[in-house]
Amino acid sequence: MAVSGSSSGGFRDELSEMRFHALGGGLREELLPKPSFKESKACAEERRGNISKFLSIGGKDVAGEDPTPEPSTERFLERPDDKTNLSMEFGPHEAAGQAAILAWQIARPELLLLERVCELVSSIDHAIREDEERAGQPSALHSAGVELIFENFEDETFPWKVVIRTDNPNSYAKVLQANRRWLGIGVDIAPATRTQFLGKCQKGEGLSGMIGGIVRQGKVELRSTCSHVLSSACESRVIEPSHDPAETRPDATLIRETPCFPAGRNIPCNVGTGEYVAGILGSREPIYFRNARGAIRRGSILSITGKVMMGGRISSFPCIHAVPWPEHNWKFWDTVYSVPGDSGAWVFDEAMSTWLGMVTAGFVGSNGTLASLAEPILTYYELVLGAKLSPHRFT
Predict the structure, then answer these.
(1) 328 falls in which pLDDT band (50, 70, 90)?
(2) Of 73, 150, 283, 329, which is most buried with the most CB atoms under 10 A?
């Protein structure tokens, strides 16, 4: 995929400046240095083996290229002491979400290591909440954000890093440093960010989200949007919302045909795998979505998030963090990538032929957008419905 105007050094400098500021700028500090590629690969392979064993529950083997595992209601949580904690149980939709996340990451070392860091952060968060409860100081649900960024191939180190976003770095630093070799990836610390949903309807009011695309089960058409967009009075919902504060399921749902969300002409499209999305992030190629006003918005993938606070809950479903593409004569931070009403829009690659994600939320005080990743969304839909689905984009 070619990038218009990307051959000029000035353009690349502007793109690098954009990414530097959006990822915390001078406030970002290194906590763990990048290990060698060999060390990172070994850690990723260890995790891949653990996931393969876990997902083989029920006789399902995920060693192939296209794993579609049977969801387990037990929680997968890798630990540095070689123990996998399965003490928490999920409901059926959370189990489907977990299976989709595990299957999505299994083919790429950087995705495996991102999720390994997320699980260690989850363990730290749990310990913090237990300490607060014992001290009689219950607090609001909180967690550090965790996202994956690409650095470079300039040396023998692993070219990816994880950024942990928190205003309380001391709560995480000691445990992360003690498990540096087990994590297998460099870690930076940056200030916390806050997100807000891009539109949410209420009973009796107009809907402020949109349908991004269609999934077909044979001749049956189902329309895809964000769960938070739909009113509690919606009678067209196919997948019910979750109220679990630590969700593994996406902010995504399917609805039947309804005049509230008219659908236009549509054609089949591809689904971007984790490997494909990581490739776009690494090569800094543009992405696109059609917003609620019908305009095509060009952007850039800044990172892949593995953990983020969203709408008062902890979301562990992977998303892309996207920002506007820098155009001539304006600075990227002056323009937002999405606005309220864009929730549910599908994000595509440059050719507009491969579905990458679905717009879910925006960052407070910045121009960034979160879009839940398409491949695990589709896997989640298929596991919940027990059927193979074909995605279609609007023309």
Answers:
(1) very low
(2) 150
